[in-house]
Amino acid sequence: MFCAVVAMSTLAACAGIGPEPVVPPAAAEVPSAEQQIRDQIVARAAPSQDIASARLRPDDNCFWFSYVGPVETTELPLLTRDGRHLCGPVPAVPEATAVAAAG
């Protein structure tokens, strides 16, 4: 009888234990292209610049930010830590245009 009681209590204790349901891992969230660009700008830009106001100007393909001074707001180029302009990638020139320009 003792064995039956031990067996019953062992089975009762294990009744809630079993294989857990397999849940597929959530897909790793990939930041948006805009967030990836912003992260790169933050990493490369020199300190003390208003990165929140930075924008890419199409005329020179570089980033500029608004410096709010005591008298006026001025557009300044966003600079890297070593003082260079922080610009976007150089737009690709279509092959037909490049061949025609070459001659």
The radius of gyration computed from the alpha-carbon positions, rounded to a whole number of angstroms, is 31 Å
Q: Tell the overall outline.
A: elongated
* Share in helix: 25-40%
Q: How would a textbook summarize the main sheet?
A: 3 strands, antiparallel
Distance between the termini: 102 Å
Note the run of SSEs as H and E: HHEEEH
Contiguous low-pLDDT stretches (5 residues minimum) are 2-7
Overall strand count? 3
Instruction: Let me know the average pLDDT.
Output: 78
Q: What structural class is derived from the secondary structure elements?
A: alpha+beta
**How many alpha or pi helices?**
3
Strand content is: 5-15%
Strand order of the largest sheet: 1-2-3
What report would you give on this structure?
By secondary structure, the protein is an alpha+beta fold. The chain is 32% helix and 15% strand. It contains three helices and three strands; from the N terminus they run ααβββα. The protein has helices spanning 2-14, 33-44, 95-102; strands spanning 55-57, 62-68, 73-77. The chain has a three-stranded antiparallel sheet with strand order 1-2-3, with no helix packed on it. A hairpin with a 4-residue loop joins strand 1 (55-57) and strand 2. The longest helix has 13 residues, at 2-14. The model is unreliable at 2-7 (pLDDT under 50).
